[in-house]
Design brief:
The complex is a heterodimer of chains A (about 110) and B (about 120). Chain A is about 0% helix and about 50% strand. The relative contact order of chain A is 0.33. The model of chain A has no long low-confidence stretch (mean pLDDT about 95). In chain A, strands 2, 5, 6, 10, 11 and 12 form a 6-stranded mixed β-sheet that branches. In chain A, strands 3-9-8-7 form a 4-stranded antiparallel β-sheet, with no helix packed on it. In chain A, strands 1-4 form a two-stranded antiparallel ribbon. With about 110 residues, chain A is an all-beta fold. Chain A is built from no helices and 12 strands. Chain B is mainly beta. In chain B, about 0% of the residues lie in helices and about 55% in strands. Chain B is built from no helices and 11 strands. In chain B, a hairpin with a 5-residue loop joins strand 4 and strand 5. The chains are: A mainly beta (about 110), B mainly beta (about 120). Chains A and B meet through strand 5, strand 6 and strand 11 of A and strand 5 and strand 9 of B.
C-alpha cells in the first residue's frame, strides 16, 4: 500500500536551533517526493521537491531535504529555525505520471519557542 | 510559476443548499485535476481525480452523488457540494499537475461553512 508516515505529530524547537522533520514513505513506483508548509487558514506552499539526481535538495526559506532510498526516507532539515517557521509541515509522495495524485502524510506541527 | 486559482476562497451556505467551487489552472493545461478535503488540524485527504472530458474517479468513501465534479475544459474543474450539511464544512483544496514538469500545483483552498 502506498503511504507516507510522519512519525512526529508535534515538535517544539527553540529559535535558532536546528530542525529535522522525519518522513518515511511506502510507494510501489519510483517516488517523487515533496515537502509543503501550511500556515493556519492558508493554502499549501511548496518548500522543495525531489524528482531525481542529487539526493540532497535545497528549497526555499533555508530548508533542505535528503532522499535516502535505502531507508525510504525524505527528512526535512533547517540549520537555524526562525519564529516564522512555526506552521504545519506535510510530506507527500507521488508518481511520475501526471494523472496520479499526491499522497500526504498526516503532518507535523512545528512550534518555535523563544 | 504556474498558478492554480480557486473561487470562492470562502463560502457560507445554509444546510440543504448546493455550493459550487471552481478550480482553474492559469498557466498550463491540466488534463487531470485533484480535489482534496482537509478537516481542522488534519492532513489533506484525496476526494477525487477529475479527468477532462470524462467522469471523475472518486476515492473510497466519497459520495459521488454528493460531491459532483465536472472537468469541462483543460483549465477548469468544478466541485459542487449538493444538499450540504454541517458535516461538509471543511477546507477544500484543488490541485493540478503540469504534464510537462510533473509538478503539482495547489490552489489556495476554499473554506466551506454550512450552517
Amino acid at each position: 500500500a502506498q503511504s507516507v508516515t510522519q512519525p512526529d505529530i508535534h515538535i517544539t524547537v527553540s529559535e535558532g536551533a536546528s530542525l529535522e522533520l522525519r518522513c518515511n514513505y511506502s510507494y510501489g513506483a519510483t517516488p517523487y517526493l515533496f515537502w509543503y508548509v501550511q500556515s493556519p487558514g492558508q493554502g499549501l506552499q511548496l518548500l522543495l521537491k525531489y524528482f531525481s539526481g542529487d539526493t540532497l535538495v535545497q528549497g526555499i526559506k533555508g530548508f533542505e531535504a535528503e532522499f535516502k532510498r535505502s531507508q525510504s526516507s525524505f527528512n526535512l532539515r533547517k540549520p537555524s529555525v526562525h519564529w516564522s517557521d512555526a506552521a504545519e509541515y506535510f510530506c507527500a509522495v507521488g508518481a511520475r505520471q501526471a494523472g496520479t495524485a499526491l499522497i500526504f502524510g498526516k503532518g507535523t506541527t512545528l512550534s518555535v519557542s523563544s | 510559476g504556474a498558478v492554480v486559482s480557486q473561487h470562492p476562497s470562502w463560502v457560507i451556505c445554509k444546510s440543504g443548499t448546493s455550493v459550487k467551487i471552481e478550480c482553474r489552472s492559469l498557466d498550463f493545461q491540466a488534463t487531470t485535476m485533484f480535489w482534496y478535503r482537509q478537516f481542522p488540524k488534519q492532513s489533506l485527504m484525496l476526494m477525487a481525480t477529475s479527468n477532462e472530458g470524462s467522469k471523475a474517479t472518486y476515492e473510497q468513501g466519497v459520495e459521488k452523488d454528493k460531491f459532483l465534479i465536472n472537468h469541462a475544459s483543460l483549465t477548469l474543474s468544478t466541485l459542487t457540494v449538493t444538499s450540504a450539511h454541517p458535516e461538509d464544512s471543511s477546507f477544500y483544496i484543488c490541485s493540478a499537475r503540469d504534464p510537462l514538469t510533473y509538478e503539482q500545483y495547489f490552489g489556495p483552498g476554499t473554506r466551506l461553512t454550512v450552517t
